[in-house]
Amino acid sequence: MEEEDVKLNEKQVQYKLESKENKKTFNWAEFLACVSVASTNLHTGFALGYSAIIIPQLEKFTDELGELSKSEISWIASSISIAAPFGCLFITFALDKFGRIATFKLSLWPCFIGWMLIALAFNTNIIIVGRLLTGFAMAVGTNSANVYMAEISSPKLRGSMMSIGSVMLSFGILLMYCTGIYLHWRVVAWIAFIGAILPVFMTAFWTPESPLWLIYKERDDMALKSLKYFKNIKYGANVQESFDEIKKIKEKNDLSINKAIENRNVFRRMAWHLSQPTVFKPLIILSILFILQQFTGIYTFQFHAINMLKEVVKGVNLKFATFLFGLLRFILSFVATGMLHTYGRRPLCMISGIIMAITLLISGLCFHLKAIGNENILTTWIPLLCMLLYISAGSVGLMLIPWILPSEMFPTKVKGLFIGPIMGWSNFVMFLAVHFYGDLKDLLDGMLGILWFYSLISILSVLFVWMFIPETHIMKLSEIEDYFKDNTIYFLRKKNPKKSQPLSI
């Protein structure tokens, strides 16, 4: 009995120590580093929201650049998406070769040049070139930032930290909408240029290189220094423990890697890694998920917001509606940050998709009723409410979470190789969805067909997430990798990974 009491007391003491450990001071080093790199999403928000305000201005005031053709409108809206895959291919080589932070800083230069070209443009071709450069910068900056944040954040806080970028992005879109309603598009471009300078100052102070990348590159001294910066404020003596754990994972991975293949060119290395279930499973799953995400219309709406609102919410003040959408998305980005800290990826995606499908379906019904002459106060204001709910649901689920998943689902040793291609694919699909929006609308016989098509894809997204997307919330990156060794369909998974302690990266 005495021995049992001693053991019970030991467990109680250990529990108290662990509880005390988990209630330590907030890790400001980790937070400031994430905020610093996430600030590049301001530029992403500028780029996404800018086409929604420049196109109506150029269509209305034709004395400066002349009348726009349908092709020019499509290219101004979608050119950032066609440039983004090239940025993603660039990080395939750069992330591993130069490091996460060095690659991030390289993205800032085409961003500055692009916005300057747009502000000074004397024809639409210059605007398109500027949009191409900002699209390239957007892809390199946001993806290198996501990889960096996934690697430096503790498992419990990883979702919240990575969703900081969504707050920045939403503020960027809101700023574009608000300024674009009242200011000339050239002035708005200069505002975006100034805003893009912010990451330069922030990353100069609070962003040491990723300790994971440094360890995998066998720069142990620098890795220990980086870990101490991130961990000593919160975990004190466990810095060495975290370092040793990462080293063990690396050594285990090294044993499974064919050294002859690793010394060959990047394409042969990619081909070899694609034979591993921990690589090809997340690659296939994410490729399909991004197709479904883009054809729910959630990003097409960002590019064509004003023109889409003209059709869907006729009778409502357009400036008021545009401001309301931007403001709501910004507020909900804060909500998403808190929800990602508390709830899993799967329920947020599925609830998001269900709400999006229902609101699009109701908007379509109201649009149909107005088209046949049944116009009243309900058919005027219900579509606005539904579109607000549509954006709200997307902002905390299908719009946000798929961008986080690649940095969690790919093994650390291949992130540099495969983050680029999968993000390139996602941006290429975005280009197709945005560029051919007008053609798809004609094919589906107008806005009614578009709304119901997006509703159908939202439901398919829910089913796909339910079947194939694993729950990565509060899982160590190594545990996520182990999941794909044995599982593909989530509800048929062979085992449940153990809950991780938030002491290790």
UniProtKB/TrEMBL annotation:
Chief localisation class: membrane
Any single GO molecular-function term of the entry would be: transmembrane transporter activity
Membrane is among the record's keywords: yes
Which Gene3D superfamilies would you find in this protein's record? MFS general substrate transporter like domains
Print the keywords alphabetically. Answer: Membrane, Transmembrane, Transmembrane helix
User: Any transmembrane segments, and where?
Assistant: 31-55, 75-95, 102-122, 161-182, 188-207, 278-300, 320-341, 348-369, 381-405, 417-438, 450-469
Q: What subcellular compartments does it reside in?
A: Membrane
* Key word Transmembrane present: yes
Q: Which GO terms describe its cellular component?
A: membrane
In what way does this protein cross or attach to the membrane? Multi-pass membrane protein
Cross-referenced InterPro entries: MFS_dom, MFS_sugar_transport-like, MFS_trans_sf, MFS_Trehalose_Transporter, Sugar/inositol_transpt
Describe the location of the Major facilitator superfamily (MFS) profile domain by residue ranges. 33-473
Q: What is this protein called?
A: Facilitated trehalose transporter Tret1-2 homolog
> What lineage, starting at the top, does this entry show?
Eukaryota, Metazoa, Ecdysozoa, Arthropoda, Hexapoda
